[in-house]
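Bit of a strange request maybe. I'm writing a small parser for C-alpha coordinate strings and I need a real example to test against, not something I typed by hand. Could someone generate the C-alpha coordinates for this chain?
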Amino acid sequence: MNLIFLALIVIAVATAAIREIRSTDPDEQPMQALSEGAIDAAGSAVELALGLVGVMALFLGLMKIAEAGGLLTVLARLLRPLMVRLFPSVPPEHPAMGAMILNFSANILGLGNAATPFGIRAMQELEKLNPHPGTATNAMALFLAINTSSITLLPTGVIALRASLGSEVPAAILPTTLFATLFATIAGIASALILQRYFLPPPATRSIDPNATGRAETDAATDAPLGETQAQDRSTGEIRDRGADEKDGEQQPMNIEVPTEGYPTWVSILVLLGVLAIIPLTIVYGQAIAPWIIPGLVVGFLSYGVIRGVPVYEVFVEGAKEGFNVALRIIPYLVAILVAVGMLRESGALGMFVGLVGPLTTPFGLPAEALPMALLRPLSGSGAYGIMAGIMQNPATGPDTHVGLLVSTLQGSTETTFYVLAVYFGAIGIKRVRHTLAAALTADAVAVIAAVAIVGFLFL
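Reply from user aminoacidic:
Good idea to test on real output. This should exercise your parser:
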Protein backbone atom coordinates (compact mmCIF):
# COMPACT_ATOMS: atom_id res chain seq x y z
CA MET A 1 0.00 0.00 0.00
CA ASN A 2 2.97 2.33 0.57
CA LEU A 3 3.97 2.08 -3.10
CA ILE A 4 0.39 2.42 -4.31
CA PHE A 5 -0.19 5.53 -2.20
CA LEU A 6 3.08 7.09 -3.39
CA ALA A 7 2.34 6.22 -7.02
CA LEU A 8 -1.09 7.86 -6.92
CA ILE A 9 0.35 11.08 -5.50
CA VAL A 10 3.31 11.18 -7.89
CA ILE A 11 1.13 10.52 -10.93
CA ALA A 12 -1.30 13.25 -9.87
CA VAL A 13 1.43 15.83 -9.29
CA ALA A 14 3.29 14.91 -12.50
CA THR A 15 0.11 15.12 -14.60
CA ALA A 16 -0.89 18.47 -13.13
CA ALA A 17 2.65 19.82 -13.56
CA ILE A 18 2.76 18.83 -17.24
CA ARG A 19 -0.65 20.41 -17.84
CA GLU A 20 0.48 23.58 -16.02
CA ILE A 21 3.62 23.90 -18.13
CA ARG A 22 1.87 23.22 -21.43
CA SER A 23 -1.23 25.31 -20.73
CA THR A 24 -1.70 28.46 -22.77
CA ASP A 25 -4.96 29.39 -21.04
CA PRO A 26 -4.27 31.86 -18.19
CA ASP A 27 -7.50 30.85 -16.47
CA GLU A 28 -6.47 27.19 -16.34
CA GLN A 29 -4.42 26.52 -13.20
CA PRO A 30 -3.99 22.74 -12.76
CA MET A 31 -1.60 23.02 -9.81
CA GLN A 32 -3.96 25.34 -7.94
CA ALA A 33 -6.83 22.95 -8.61
CA LEU A 34 -4.64 20.09 -7.36
CA SER A 35 -3.94 21.88 -4.08
CA GLU A 36 -7.58 22.75 -3.52
CA GLY A 37 -8.60 19.19 -4.39
CA ALA A 38 -6.27 17.73 -1.77
CA ILE A 39 -7.59 20.03 0.98
CA ASP A 40 -11.23 19.46 0.02
CA ALA A 41 -10.72 15.67 -0.06
CA ALA A 42 -9.19 15.69 3.43
CA GLY A 43 -12.19 17.58 4.80
CA SER A 44 -14.62 15.29 2.99
CA ALA A 45 -12.93 12.22 4.49
CA VAL A 46 -13.49 13.48 8.03
CA GLU A 47 -17.11 14.46 7.27
CA LEU A 48 -17.68 11.01 5.78
CA ALA A 49 -16.30 9.22 8.85
CA LEU A 50 -18.31 11.36 11.25
CA GLY A 51 -21.47 10.68 9.25
CA LEU A 52 -20.69 6.99 9.48
CA VAL A 53 -20.52 6.95 13.30
CA GLY A 54 -24.24 6.62 13.98
CA VAL A 55 -24.99 4.01 11.32
CA MET A 56 -21.94 1.92 12.20
CA ALA A 57 -22.94 2.03 15.87
CA LEU A 58 -26.42 0.76 14.94
CA PHE A 59 -25.20 -2.21 12.92
CA LEU A 60 -22.42 -3.27 15.27
CA GLY A 61 -24.84 -3.01 18.17
CA LEU A 62 -27.20 -5.42 16.41
CA MET A 63 -24.37 -7.80 15.51
CA LYS A 64 -23.22 -7.78 19.14
CA ILE A 65 -26.67 -9.02 20.15
CA ALA A 66 -26.45 -11.83 17.58
CA GLU A 67 -22.97 -12.74 18.80
CA ALA A 68 -24.02 -12.73 22.47
CA GLY A 69 -27.05 -14.86 21.61
CA GLY A 70 -24.86 -17.63 20.21
CA LEU A 71 -25.66 -17.18 16.53
CA LEU A 72 -22.03 -18.01 15.68
CA THR A 73 -22.35 -21.32 17.50
CA VAL A 74 -25.59 -22.13 15.66
CA LEU A 75 -23.91 -21.49 12.31
CA ALA A 76 -20.89 -23.52 13.40
CA ARG A 77 -23.09 -26.52 14.16
CA LEU A 78 -24.74 -26.17 10.75
CA LEU A 79 -21.40 -26.01 8.96
CA ARG A 80 -19.66 -28.87 10.77
CA PRO A 81 -21.11 -31.79 8.71
CA LEU A 82 -20.13 -30.01 5.48
CA MET A 83 -16.67 -29.08 6.77
CA VAL A 84 -15.84 -32.64 7.78
CA ARG A 85 -16.36 -33.68 4.17
CA LEU A 86 -14.51 -30.74 2.67
CA PHE A 87 -11.46 -31.28 4.90
CA PRO A 88 -10.95 -35.06 5.15
CA SER A 89 -7.31 -34.60 6.21
CA VAL A 90 -8.34 -32.70 9.36
CA PRO A 91 -9.68 -34.91 12.19
CA PRO A 92 -13.28 -33.87 13.01
CA GLU A 93 -12.47 -33.21 16.68
CA HIS A 94 -9.16 -31.42 16.06
CA PRO A 95 -9.02 -27.76 17.24
CA ALA A 96 -8.29 -26.71 13.64
CA MET A 97 -11.76 -27.85 12.57
CA GLY A 98 -13.48 -25.81 15.28
CA ALA A 99 -11.45 -22.68 14.49
CA MET A 100 -12.14 -22.93 10.74
CA ILE A 101 -15.86 -23.42 11.33
CA LEU A 102 -16.05 -20.35 13.57
CA ASN A 103 -14.00 -18.33 11.08
CA PHE A 104 -16.44 -19.14 8.26
CA SER A 105 -19.44 -18.50 10.51
CA ALA A 106 -18.12 -15.05 11.44
CA ASN A 107 -17.43 -14.20 7.79
CA ILE A 108 -20.97 -15.23 6.80
CA LEU A 109 -22.34 -12.73 9.32
CA GLY A 110 -19.90 -10.01 8.26
CA LEU A 111 -18.11 -10.12 11.64
CA GLY A 112 -14.60 -9.41 10.36
CA ASN A 113 -13.34 -8.53 13.84
CA ALA A 114 -14.30 -12.02 15.04
CA ALA A 115 -13.23 -13.89 11.90
CA THR A 116 -9.59 -12.80 12.02
CA PRO A 117 -8.54 -14.35 15.35
CA PHE A 118 -10.40 -17.56 14.48
CA GLY A 119 -8.56 -17.66 11.15
CA ILE A 120 -5.16 -17.18 12.74
CA ARG A 121 -5.91 -19.90 15.30
CA ALA A 122 -7.04 -22.22 12.49
CA MET A 123 -3.74 -21.72 10.66
CA GLN A 124 -1.78 -22.42 13.84
CA GLU A 125 -3.68 -25.65 14.37
CA LEU A 126 -3.39 -26.71 10.72
CA GLU A 127 0.36 -26.21 10.99
CA LYS A 128 0.42 -28.93 13.66
CA LEU A 129 -0.93 -31.32 11.02
CA ASN A 130 1.62 -30.18 8.41
CA PRO A 131 4.13 -32.94 7.55
CA HIS A 132 6.26 -30.53 5.51
CA PRO A 133 6.80 -27.27 7.49
CA GLY A 134 7.29 -24.18 5.37
CA THR A 135 4.96 -25.46 2.62
CA ALA A 136 1.20 -24.98 2.55
CA THR A 137 -0.92 -28.10 2.90
CA ASN A 138 -4.01 -28.84 0.81
CA ALA A 139 -6.17 -28.01 3.84
CA MET A 140 -4.49 -24.61 4.27
CA ALA A 141 -4.95 -23.76 0.60
CA LEU A 142 -8.62 -24.75 0.64
CA PHE A 143 -9.23 -22.90 3.91
CA LEU A 144 -7.79 -19.65 2.56
CA ALA A 145 -9.57 -20.02 -0.79
CA ILE A 146 -12.89 -20.24 1.09
CA ASN A 147 -11.83 -17.54 3.56
CA THR A 148 -11.15 -14.99 0.82
CA SER A 149 -14.44 -15.75 -0.98
CA SER A 150 -16.72 -16.63 1.93
CA ILE A 151 -20.48 -16.39 1.41
CA THR A 152 -21.60 -13.15 3.05
CA LEU A 153 -25.17 -12.68 4.24
CA LEU A 154 -24.68 -9.32 5.97
CA PRO A 155 -22.07 -6.89 4.55
CA THR A 156 -22.83 -4.55 7.44
CA GLY A 157 -19.94 -2.13 6.91
CA VAL A 158 -20.87 -1.42 3.31
CA ILE A 159 -24.56 -1.04 4.17
CA ALA A 160 -23.62 1.41 6.92
CA LEU A 161 -21.54 3.50 4.52
CA ARG A 162 -24.32 3.56 1.94
CA ALA A 163 -26.80 4.70 4.59
CA SER A 164 -24.46 7.45 5.79
CA LEU A 165 -24.15 8.76 2.23
CA GLY A 166 -27.91 9.11 1.85
CA SER A 167 -28.76 5.95 -0.08
CA GLU A 168 -32.50 5.48 -0.42
CA VAL A 169 -32.09 1.69 -0.16
CA PRO A 170 -28.82 0.96 1.73
CA ALA A 171 -29.48 -2.80 1.87
CA ALA A 172 -30.05 -3.14 -1.88
CA ILE A 173 -26.68 -4.88 -2.14
CA LEU A 174 -27.71 -7.84 0.04
CA PRO A 175 -28.94 -10.01 -2.86
CA THR A 176 -26.09 -8.98 -5.15
CA THR A 177 -23.45 -9.68 -2.48
CA LEU A 178 -24.96 -13.06 -1.64
CA PHE A 179 -25.04 -14.00 -5.32
CA ALA A 180 -21.44 -12.93 -5.97
CA THR A 181 -19.99 -14.55 -2.85
CA LEU A 182 -21.82 -17.83 -3.48
CA PHE A 183 -20.28 -18.17 -6.93
CA ALA A 184 -16.90 -17.00 -5.64
CA THR A 185 -16.97 -19.64 -2.89
CA ILE A 186 -17.88 -22.39 -5.35
CA ALA A 187 -15.06 -21.24 -7.64
CA GLY A 188 -12.58 -21.08 -4.74
CA ILE A 189 -13.41 -24.61 -3.58
CA ALA A 190 -13.37 -26.07 -7.09
CA SER A 191 -10.09 -24.41 -8.08
CA ALA A 192 -8.36 -25.44 -4.84
CA LEU A 193 -9.45 -29.08 -5.24
CA ILE A 194 -8.45 -29.19 -8.90
CA LEU A 195 -5.12 -27.36 -8.57
CA GLN A 196 -3.94 -29.48 -5.64
CA ARG A 197 -3.55 -32.36 -8.10
CA TYR A 198 -0.96 -30.40 -10.07
CA PHE A 199 0.86 -28.58 -7.24
CA LEU A 200 2.08 -31.58 -5.29
CA PRO A 201 3.63 -31.07 -1.83
CA PRO A 202 7.25 -32.05 -1.11
CA PRO A 203 8.07 -35.27 0.77
CA ALA A 204 7.14 -35.28 4.44
CA THR A 205 9.93 -34.19 6.78
CA ARG A 206 8.22 -35.06 10.06
CA SER A 207 5.61 -37.45 11.38
CA ILE A 208 2.33 -36.05 12.58
CA ASP A 209 0.09 -37.19 15.42
CA PRO A 210 -3.45 -36.14 14.39
CA ASN A 211 -4.50 -36.19 18.03
CA ALA A 212 -1.80 -33.73 19.13
CA THR A 213 -3.26 -30.63 20.74
CA GLY A 214 -0.16 -28.81 21.91
CA ARG A 215 0.60 -25.24 20.95
CA ALA A 216 1.61 -24.52 17.38
CA GLU A 217 5.31 -24.32 16.72
CA THR A 218 4.98 -20.74 15.58
CA ASP A 219 3.06 -18.26 17.69
CA ALA A 220 1.53 -15.57 15.50
CA ALA A 221 1.46 -12.97 18.23
CA THR A 222 5.15 -13.22 18.99
CA ASP A 223 6.97 -14.64 15.95
CA ALA A 224 5.22 -12.89 13.09
CA PRO A 225 6.92 -9.79 11.63
CA LEU A 226 5.59 -6.52 12.98
CA GLY A 227 3.80 -5.68 9.76
CA GLU A 228 1.95 -9.01 9.89
CA THR A 229 0.42 -8.60 13.34
CA GLN A 230 -2.50 -6.71 11.86
CA ALA A 231 -5.47 -7.80 9.82
CA GLN A 232 -8.18 -6.07 7.85
CA ASP A 233 -11.93 -6.19 8.05
CA ARG A 234 -13.56 -7.13 4.76
CA SER A 235 -16.50 -4.82 5.19
CA THR A 236 -14.79 -1.70 6.51
CA GLY A 237 -11.14 -1.96 5.54
CA GLU A 238 -10.30 -1.20 9.18
CA ILE A 239 -6.83 -2.18 10.40
CA ARG A 240 -6.90 -4.27 13.56
CA ASP A 241 -4.20 -5.59 15.86
CA ARG A 242 -4.69 -9.31 15.97
CA GLY A 243 -2.16 -10.05 18.70
CA ALA A 244 -4.49 -8.52 21.24
CA ASP A 245 -7.34 -10.71 20.04
CA GLU A 246 -5.68 -14.05 20.61
CA LYS A 247 -5.73 -16.06 23.79
CA ASP A 248 -3.18 -18.38 25.26
CA GLY A 249 -3.65 -22.12 25.29
CA GLU A 250 -6.28 -23.97 23.33
CA GLN A 251 -9.19 -21.72 24.24
CA GLN A 252 -10.77 -20.23 21.15
CA PRO A 253 -10.64 -16.43 20.70
CA MET A 254 -13.37 -14.32 22.28
CA ASN A 255 -14.31 -17.21 24.64
CA ILE A 256 -16.91 -18.45 22.13
CA GLU A 257 -17.90 -22.06 22.66
CA VAL A 258 -16.75 -24.41 19.90
CA PRO A 259 -19.42 -27.05 19.30
CA THR A 260 -17.96 -30.57 19.21
CA GLU A 261 -21.01 -31.94 17.41
CA GLY A 262 -22.92 -30.57 14.46
CA TYR A 263 -26.56 -30.79 13.58
CA PRO A 264 -27.62 -33.88 11.61
CA THR A 265 -26.38 -33.79 8.03
CA TRP A 266 -29.91 -33.54 6.66
CA VAL A 267 -30.45 -30.35 8.66
CA SER A 268 -27.31 -28.74 7.21
CA ILE A 269 -28.31 -29.78 3.69
CA LEU A 270 -31.83 -28.41 4.21
CA VAL A 271 -30.48 -25.05 5.39
CA LEU A 272 -28.04 -24.91 2.47
CA LEU A 273 -30.85 -25.60 0.01
CA GLY A 274 -32.86 -22.87 1.74
CA VAL A 275 -30.04 -20.37 1.23
CA LEU A 276 -29.74 -21.40 -2.41
CA ALA A 277 -33.49 -20.97 -2.82
CA ILE A 278 -33.32 -17.45 -1.40
CA ILE A 279 -30.94 -16.28 -4.14
CA PRO A 280 -33.38 -16.47 -7.08
CA LEU A 281 -36.09 -14.95 -4.89
CA THR A 282 -33.85 -12.00 -4.00
CA ILE A 283 -32.96 -11.58 -7.67
CA VAL A 284 -36.58 -11.56 -8.81
CA TYR A 285 -38.01 -9.57 -5.91
CA GLY A 286 -34.83 -7.87 -4.66
CA GLN A 287 -35.93 -4.30 -5.33
CA ALA A 288 -39.28 -4.89 -3.63
CA ILE A 289 -37.70 -6.62 -0.63
CA ALA A 290 -34.79 -4.20 -0.14
CA PRO A 291 -36.71 -1.47 1.77
CA TRP A 292 -37.86 -4.08 4.30
CA ILE A 293 -34.42 -5.53 5.00
CA ILE A 294 -33.06 -3.06 7.56
CA PRO A 295 -36.29 -2.87 9.63
CA GLY A 296 -36.45 -6.66 9.43
CA LEU A 297 -32.85 -7.00 10.64
CA VAL A 298 -33.46 -4.68 13.59
CA VAL A 299 -36.60 -6.53 14.71
CA GLY A 300 -35.09 -9.94 13.94
CA PHE A 301 -31.85 -9.47 15.91
CA LEU A 302 -33.61 -7.87 18.87
CA SER A 303 -36.20 -10.67 18.95
CA TYR A 304 -33.49 -13.30 18.67
CA GLY A 305 -31.62 -11.72 21.56
CA VAL A 306 -34.75 -11.65 23.76
CA ILE A 307 -35.51 -15.31 22.97
CA ARG A 308 -31.91 -16.26 23.86
CA GLY A 309 -32.06 -14.35 27.13
CA VAL A 310 -29.66 -11.59 26.07
CA PRO A 311 -29.99 -8.20 27.85
CA VAL A 312 -30.51 -6.55 24.49
CA TYR A 313 -30.22 -2.92 25.56
CA GLU A 314 -26.93 -3.32 27.46
CA VAL A 315 -25.39 -5.54 24.77
CA PHE A 316 -26.56 -3.21 21.99
CA VAL A 317 -24.92 -0.24 23.74
CA GLU A 318 -21.69 -2.22 24.12
CA GLY A 319 -21.66 -3.07 20.42
CA ALA A 320 -22.57 0.51 19.49
CA LYS A 321 -19.51 1.73 21.39
CA GLU A 322 -17.39 -0.53 19.19
CA GLY A 323 -19.07 0.92 16.11
CA PHE A 324 -18.27 4.44 17.30
CA ASN A 325 -14.61 3.51 17.76
CA VAL A 326 -14.44 1.78 14.36
CA ALA A 327 -15.78 4.85 12.57
CA LEU A 328 -13.21 7.09 14.26
CA ARG A 329 -10.29 4.72 13.68
CA ILE A 330 -10.78 4.65 9.93
CA ILE A 331 -10.44 8.46 9.61
CA PRO A 332 -6.65 8.42 8.93
CA TYR A 333 -7.02 5.74 6.25
CA LEU A 334 -9.89 7.58 4.58
CA VAL A 335 -7.96 10.86 4.62
CA ALA A 336 -4.92 9.21 3.01
CA ILE A 337 -6.72 7.44 0.18
CA LEU A 338 -9.34 10.13 -0.51
CA VAL A 339 -6.65 12.81 -0.73
CA ALA A 340 -4.71 10.64 -3.20
CA VAL A 341 -7.82 9.92 -5.30
CA GLY A 342 -8.95 13.55 -5.09
CA MET A 343 -5.57 14.75 -6.34
CA LEU A 344 -5.65 12.14 -9.11
CA ARG A 345 -9.08 13.38 -10.18
CA GLU A 346 -8.21 17.09 -10.08
CA SER A 347 -4.97 16.54 -11.98
CA GLY A 348 -6.87 15.04 -14.90
CA ALA A 349 -5.06 11.70 -14.70
CA LEU A 350 -8.15 9.82 -13.54
CA GLY A 351 -10.21 11.32 -16.34
CA MET A 352 -7.63 10.21 -18.90
CA PHE A 353 -7.60 6.69 -17.43
CA VAL A 354 -11.40 6.49 -17.56
CA GLY A 355 -11.39 7.77 -21.14
CA LEU A 356 -8.88 5.13 -22.23
CA VAL A 357 -10.30 2.13 -20.38
CA GLY A 358 -14.00 2.94 -20.48
CA PRO A 359 -14.62 1.87 -24.09
CA LEU A 360 -12.99 -1.50 -23.33
CA THR A 361 -14.72 -2.42 -20.05
CA THR A 362 -18.12 -0.70 -20.31
CA PRO A 363 -19.52 -3.14 -22.92
CA PHE A 364 -18.90 -5.93 -20.39
CA GLY A 365 -20.82 -4.12 -17.64
CA LEU A 366 -17.76 -2.82 -15.76
CA PRO A 367 -17.71 1.00 -15.87
CA ALA A 368 -14.26 2.52 -15.98
CA GLU A 369 -15.03 4.44 -12.77
CA ALA A 370 -15.24 1.12 -10.90
CA LEU A 371 -12.13 -0.45 -12.41
CA PRO A 372 -9.58 1.19 -10.05
CA MET A 373 -11.38 -0.29 -7.06
CA ALA A 374 -11.65 -3.74 -8.66
CA LEU A 375 -7.88 -3.70 -9.28
CA LEU A 376 -6.96 -2.35 -5.84
CA ARG A 377 -9.30 -4.59 -3.80
CA PRO A 378 -7.02 -7.68 -3.70
CA LEU A 379 -4.14 -5.50 -2.48
CA SER A 380 -5.62 -3.18 0.13
CA GLY A 381 -8.94 -3.22 1.98
CA SER A 382 -8.58 0.32 3.30
CA GLY A 383 -7.51 1.63 -0.12
CA ALA A 384 -10.45 -0.01 -1.88
CA TYR A 385 -12.81 1.22 0.84
CA GLY A 386 -11.57 4.77 0.34
CA ILE A 387 -12.04 4.59 -3.42
CA MET A 388 -15.53 3.14 -2.94
CA ALA A 389 -16.38 5.96 -0.55
CA GLY A 390 -15.04 8.55 -2.99
CA ILE A 391 -17.09 7.10 -5.86
CA MET A 392 -20.30 7.14 -3.83
CA GLN A 393 -19.62 10.67 -2.55
CA ASN A 394 -19.48 11.92 -6.13
CA PRO A 395 -22.99 13.10 -7.14
CA ALA A 396 -22.46 11.65 -10.63
CA THR A 397 -21.82 8.18 -9.21
CA GLY A 398 -23.80 8.21 -5.95
CA PRO A 399 -24.64 5.17 -3.83
CA ASP A 400 -27.82 4.32 -5.75
CA THR A 401 -26.38 4.61 -9.26
CA HIS A 402 -25.21 1.57 -11.20
CA VAL A 403 -21.59 2.41 -10.42
CA GLY A 404 -22.32 2.96 -6.73
CA LEU A 405 -24.18 -0.34 -6.42
CA LEU A 406 -21.42 -2.18 -8.28
CA VAL A 407 -18.55 -0.90 -6.12
CA SER A 408 -20.63 -1.62 -3.00
CA THR A 409 -21.12 -5.20 -4.16
CA LEU A 410 -17.44 -5.58 -5.04
CA GLN A 411 -16.42 -4.37 -1.58
CA GLY A 412 -18.77 -6.83 0.11
CA SER A 413 -17.94 -9.84 -2.06
CA THR A 414 -14.18 -9.71 -2.61
CA GLU A 415 -11.21 -9.79 -0.25
CA THR A 416 -7.75 -8.31 0.23
CA THR A 417 -6.26 -11.57 -1.03
CA PHE A 418 -2.55 -10.71 -1.02
CA TYR A 419 -2.76 -9.16 2.43
CA VAL A 420 -4.70 -12.09 3.91
CA LEU A 421 -2.26 -14.62 2.50
CA ALA A 422 0.70 -12.61 3.78
CA VAL A 423 -0.78 -12.35 7.29
CA TYR A 424 -2.03 -15.92 7.63
CA PHE A 425 1.00 -17.61 6.10
CA GLY A 426 3.39 -15.20 7.80
CA ALA A 427 1.87 -16.15 11.14
CA ILE A 428 3.14 -19.73 10.81
CA GLY A 429 6.21 -19.22 8.65
CA ILE A 430 4.86 -20.67 5.36
CA LYS A 431 7.08 -19.67 2.43
CA ARG A 432 5.83 -21.98 -0.35
CA VAL A 433 2.14 -21.31 -0.89
CA ARG A 434 1.69 -23.84 -3.74
CA HIS A 435 -1.71 -23.30 -5.41
CA THR A 436 -3.23 -21.11 -2.69
CA LEU A 437 -2.77 -17.78 -4.49
CA ALA A 438 -4.10 -19.12 -7.80
CA ALA A 439 -7.22 -20.53 -6.10
CA ALA A 440 -7.86 -17.32 -4.13
CA LEU A 441 -7.41 -15.08 -7.18
CA THR A 442 -9.72 -17.35 -9.18
CA ALA A 443 -12.37 -16.82 -6.51
CA ASP A 444 -11.77 -13.04 -6.65
CA ALA A 445 -12.10 -12.99 -10.45
CA VAL A 446 -15.33 -14.98 -10.32
CA ALA A 447 -16.66 -12.63 -7.62
CA VAL A 448 -16.02 -9.61 -9.87
CA ILE A 449 -17.65 -11.31 -12.87
CA ALA A 450 -20.65 -12.39 -10.80
CA ALA A 451 -21.00 -8.93 -9.25
CA VAL A 452 -20.92 -7.25 -12.66
CA ALA A 453 -23.49 -9.71 -14.00
CA ILE A 454 -25.98 -9.52 -11.14
CA VAL A 455 -25.77 -5.74 -10.67
CA GLY A 456 -26.21 -5.25 -14.38
CA PHE A 457 -29.18 -7.62 -14.44
CA LEU A 458 -30.94 -6.01 -11.50
CA PHE A 459 -30.11 -2.32 -11.86
CA LEU A 460 -29.42 -1.55 -15.53
